[in-house]
Write a structure and sequence with these properties.
Strands 1-20-19-18 form a four-stranded antiparallel β-sheet, with no helix packed on it. The protein has a four-stranded antiparallel β-sheet with strand order 2-3-4-5, with no helix packed on it. Strands 6-7-8-9 form a four-stranded antiparallel β-sheet. By secondary structure, the protein is mainly β. It is 3% helix and 48% strand.
């Protein structure tokens, strides 16, 4: 449609992710060497971007999967310098995944971490506080949302934001597709990679960011479609008159870790409508096409898209694409 069509509302994401700038390289070459799962925020007073990201290696390659997370800062949202890192051994866990960094004006900073509960092998979300982004101690993480609390087989990948002062957290959570034994679901400490679950997106709210109330499933897998196994919302942002979301989709467990990206929208954050019904919005040109874990930050008329994308050798790097309101590179 023409850009001036009066019946076309909320255009979104007209860009080529392959043109994004690489801001972090993977730790090695080949499948399983990934850097990404970004969570980004901006501090207006300090005029700084803050990025938390995860580094992964293949299973069996020391220190193995989900071994470390880093926090980096930037003036322009493009060139980042690491200021902190944490490792999974500090949590006594087998893996860490996508995290969320939140500034609290009266309390300093909070880091919401998704990691495997060493007690029962299920993904859960914890929180740790610090006065500065370089001061977190992962040994002090306390759980704030567990799988058992929401009646799920795992909960992870938090995306945290405020609406009118109320905390909102969008999460990925797993429900058992069939009645399976605990050992089948959790002996590998990753139910999401068993093929025995469905990976959906849910919403929780909180008045203090510590005690969370489960609200609803907001986007479930579209059985039989390209996103029939997983529909994992990674980011939400407001573009009047709706909330837009980019989500990771996979058709079955064989595409776990190699998801493609879809688009959805909502008027109330409780129910999202798919736009990407016949196929992904974005895919990497490199087989198997992974592009996932988007985070979007709209600032001063420029929209920053951060994402993890597959390279020709099967590894994943971390990129950013900056777009003006018309969708052109800025």
């Amino acid at each position: 449609m023409p850009e001036n069509d009066p019946r076309q509302w909320t255009p979104c994401c007209a860009f080529d992710p392959g043109e994004g700038i690489v801001i972090r390289e993977p730790p090695g070459e080949g499948p399983g060497y990934w850097v990404g799962a970004p969570g980004v925020t901006y501090h207006k007073k300090f005029e700084q971007f803050y990025l938390v990201y995860r580094v992964r290696r293949p299973r069996g390659v020391v220190p193995d999967r989900g071994a470390e997370i880093h926090i980096a800062t930037s003036r322009d949202g493009m060139a980042f310098q690491d200021v902190w890192s944490g490792t999974k051994d500090q949590l006594g866990t087998s893996s860490i995944e996508r995290c969320a960094l939140v500034h609290e004006p009266d309390r300093g900073w909070r880091l919401y971490v998704s990691y495997v509960d060493p007690a029962d092998g299920r993904w859960q979300i914890g929180m740790v506080e610090a006065q500065k982004p370089d001061g977190f101690d992962l040994k002090a993480v306390r759980p704030v949302m567990t799988a058992s609390q929401i009646g799920a087989e795992g909960v992870k990948d938090p995306f945290v934001f405020h609406v009118a002062g109320l905390y909102h957290m969008v999460v990925s959570y797993a429900t058992a597709a069939t009645t399976d034994r605990w050992e089948d679901l959790h002996r590998t400490h990753d139910a999401f990679n068993t093929g025995l679950i469905l990976s959906a997106s849910g919403l929780a709210t909180s008045v203090d960011g510590v005690a969370w109330q489960w609200e609803a499933d907001i986007l479930s897998p579209n059985r039989g479609a390209w996103d029939g196994y997983a529909s994992r919302i990674g980011t939400v942002w407001y573009q009047a008159p709706v909330w837009l979301a980019l989500y990771d989709g996979s058709a079955d467990v064989s595409e776990n870790y190699e998801e493609r990206c879809g688009l959805a929208y909502s008027f109330d954050l409780r129910r999202f409508q798919r736009v990407s019904r016949n196929g992904p919005l974005f895919r990497s040109p490199n087989v198997p096409g992974a592009i996932r874990y988007f985070d979007v930050l709209a600032l001063d008329g420029v929209t920053h898209f951060y994402y993890e994308i597959a390279r020709p050798d099967g590894s994943h790097d971390l990129r950013v694409y900056r777009a003006s309101p018309g969708g052109n590179p800025s």
